[in-house]
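User: Hey, quick favor. My workstation is busy. Could you predict this chain's structure for me?
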Amino acid sequence: MDAAFTAEQDEIRRTLRELLTKRSGPDEVKAAVRTAAGYDRELWARLSEQLGLPGLALPDVYGGVGCGLAELAVACEETGRALLPSPLLATAGLAAPLITALGTPAQRDELLPRIANGALTCALAVPGGSLAPALALSGDNASGEWAGGGRAGGVQAKPGDAGTWLLYGEAGQVLDGHSAGLLLVAAHTGGFARSRTLLFLVRADAAGLSRTRQTALDETRPQARIELRDCAAELLGADEAADVPGVLAAAGAGVATLLAAEAVGAASCALDRTVEYVRGREQFGRAIGSFQAVKHRLADLYVRVQAARSAAYYAAWDPAEGGLALAQGLEALRVVAGEAVQLHGGIGFTWEHEAHLYFKRAAADELLFGPVHALRAHAAERAGLFAVGATSPSGDGVVAV
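Assistant: No problem, here it is.
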């Protein structure tokens, strides 16, 4: 493993930071999230057409740039620094890998080029209040319990006419679900005895589809409630026996890496802003940043951010470590955001201050993709750390009984 960034990765970082510094400051973020789409469509078009951001990790045969997860993680770190509201995570991080893994050649040829050029945005709709169980971040998703199942609950699918399907049910907290042009809906089919979870494509204009944008703690991650009433849908892929939980788990490992990189970017920017503030804010005739107690607190935060960054890019090299990297990133962002509010003093406690944008992102991401202790517990379980007679990774002894 080469830990150094390539010239191409450095250029992605430089170009994005330069653009987002000009176009996505705190005031621009607050304005963008209050639009109907929940993001700046003009900026998204520029990121898509000029920088190829949504197609960064897609093969060039589909109009993508042909890079990999590491390059997309670099981009996500920069969008995280700006807390950029955009469909990037839901579209390029979640939907594109699922379509690539499960879609028929015709579906891939139709959808992936439109994702790569930014014309099509997507959202993954799963029942329940959290994506973590569906993506196998906080537990095994093979049983399908996260999707409801049985005779009721979740979203149910039944065959329609001419190879179509009809979906009935609802899903809450769908990331970017109110504005996406295409929904990937997880639904049960086969009845109670042979129930299995499949993914279906639902177009934004499908009859029987109702979408309502919900009030979210973090407005930069807009969420929607999706209701399907005998809504026409198309099966993603051609094989009803496809291992959908396995594909979701693989996509979850990748999106956990991207989320970890986003959290690192947000934590790093919050720390930079706090350092800048304490250098200029005076108390008792001197800058508060010169006090030893403040220096110690900032040094601890710096170590947390750097450790989380290392974990995120290790996961970009080995996505199986995405869950642990996400836990590290979410914890770092939570601690840094909390300290940023504290070290800004009285002004930091006002709800309108930009420090609260980072605090809200930290809290909301842990609700959507955590909690941290569940991410770590599942990673430990997968590694067999708590199994009877388990040995350490180096094989030098028993670590749990």
